[in-house]
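User: Can you help me understand a structure? I only have the sequence.
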Amino acid sequence: MEFEIDIDREEIENYSVLETVLNDDLCKAILLVLLKNRAFDQNHALPTPDIHRTIKIKIDRSAKYLQIWKRLYKLMEYGIVDRIEDNPVRWYVKGEYINKIIEKFSKIELPETKQMEFKQQ
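Assistant: Let's start by predicting it. Here is the structure, written out as tokens:
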């Protein structure tokens, strides 16, 4: 006896990628910074030093530049962010992921201090 399962493969892949990324606090912080600064396209892309500075000041003082680079490349491998080869390299969230990420963030409870810091801006 065979069963047919009607599952949208793309939806499953996107779900698992976002779930994987959102389990990593530093990836969440990077995405929050990019979304907060409206880095949604090449014209509004954010340089790596600005991402690092914002995370270090507002979210996690222990964040290292190399860690952020590794996470940015991880996000790029997953296809969530893209880069522009300027000096310094600039990053932005790809259009098809913006609404999905915002939806996921709305369901995630952030620690109270992190929520307050982003609300103050």
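Now, to help you interpret it: DSSP finds six helices and three strands in the chain. The first helix runs from residue 9 to 22. Let me know which part you'd like to focus on.
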